[in-house]
UniProtKB/TrEMBL annotation:
It comes from the Bacteria. Gene3D superfamilies: Tetratricopeptide repeat domain (1.25.40.10). This is Uncharacterized protein. InterPro entries: DUF2225, TPR-like_helical_dom_sf.
Length: 228
């Protein structure tokens, strides 16, 4: 009996040009998480068997790049804009095979560009930026900070405009994530404010783990700020 690969090909239809293509995914039975960072970045036991590398699907025909979080419909006017700004400049590349961290970063950057043109929800764009930051973290690259800052700004925009409603992001989780990303980017007073907002909701919160994480980070930051 042959050895089963951790990878398998999944079929996709491009949201823009409607052409079919395949992209690699990882079988869940092979995914082993060692631990999570405080901003939910998963650290896997194997650097190669990392689902974050494969969350973006890049159409080899037109260059449109997207994730499962993207809305499926594109209005005609935006299709025209995507064709002008993405497809007309696309030089055929195939992201459907095993990816290095840099290739994954390139795929996410393409997806962020498409998300901006497509007017995706702020929470979706924030998630793309956050994962780019995670990938730079894996490479110990200082670019991580730039994308953490971009991610937190979009999460704040999403929270203020309520655009995270209907997504997988709960109010408690987005508040915590905003606080943690502010902390990681050195915006400590703002971080304490958002950690406090999580704790204000603890009585009615069902996500107890997030409340405990917020309390730990809030206490640690208060101690640091008091010593400064």
């Amino acid at each position: 009996m042959g050895h089963l690969s951790p990878f398998y090909e999944k079929n996709f239809e491009c949201l823009l040009c409607k052409n079919k293509f395949t992209s690699l995914k990882i079988r869940s039975s092979y995914v082993k998480v060692d631990f999570y960072d405080k901003d939910f970045c998963p650290n896997y036991k194997s650097k190669e068997i990392n689902p974050v590398l494969y969350n973006i699907y890049v159409c080899p025909h037109c260059g449109f790049s997207f994730s499962d979080e993207f809305s499926k419909y594109i209005v005609p006017a935006i299709k025209e804009e995507l064709n002008e700004k993405v497809s007309m400049h696309w030089k055929t590349q195939d992201f459907g095979h095993e990816r290095s961290i840099q290739q994954a970063i390139n795929a996410y950057k393409l997806a962020s560009y498409c998300a901006v043109i497509k007017r995706e929800k702020k929470v979706t764009l924030a998630g793309v930026f956050l994962r780019i930051a995670w990938l730079y973290r894996m490479n110990e690259d200082e670019q991580e900070q730039r994308f953490l800052q971009m991610a937190v700004q979009e999460y704040i925009n999403s929270y203020v405009n309520d655009d995270f409603r209907g997504s997988q992001m709960s109010e408690l989780k987005i508040l915590y994530l905003i606080a943690e990303l502010l902390r990681r980017t050195g915006q400590y007073k703002e971080a304490v404010f958002y950690f406090s907002k999580v704790l204000e909701k603890q009585a009615s919160a069902s996500e107890r783990t997030i409340v405990e994480m917020a309390r730990d980070q809030w206490n640690e930051m208060r101690n640091v700020m008091n010593q400064a």
